[in-house]
Specification:
single chain, about 120 residues, alpha/beta, four-stranded parallel sheet, about 35% helix, about 15% strand
């Protein structure tokens, strides 16, 4: 599967059946912490939070329970720069999801003032 671009993700926000997962820390997701290179803090609208550190501790059943999406669902994962989400994609795929990485992640998203932020 190919990686997700910013343009693709922006065009698919709110799409039924698509699960967007922010795998950063809860403080990053909430906009309480982040990298100074990012002009805005917060998360992409509609994203659910599931810290990659938690994913590493779960078996496939635990991943499915934590995500709450049916097996086979399309999942897009992002973090700050695509590294943590790349790891998360492998875990999500092993749990039965059609998972893809958004390598631009929060850094690319937050840098475009035309894109929405929660």
């Amino acid at each position: 599967m190919t990686d997700v671009t910013t343009a693709e993700l922006a065009g698919r926000l709110g799409e039924e059946g698509l699960v967007l997962v922010d795998v950063r820390s809860l403080r990053e997701y909430a906009g309480e912490a982040g990298y100074p290179c990012d002009p805005r803090q917060g998360h992409i609208p509609g994203a659910v939070h599931l810290d990659v550190q938690a994913l590493h501790r779960l078996d496939a059943d635990g991943v499915r329970a934590a995500l709450g999406a049916p097996p086979g669902a399309e999942v897009i994962a992002y973090c700050h720069s695509g590294v943590r989400s790349g790891h998360a994609v492998e875990i999500l795929r092993a749990a039965g999801y059609a998972a893809r990485n958004y390598p631009g992640s929060w850094h690319a998203w937050s840098s475009d003032p035309a894109l929405p932020v929660e």
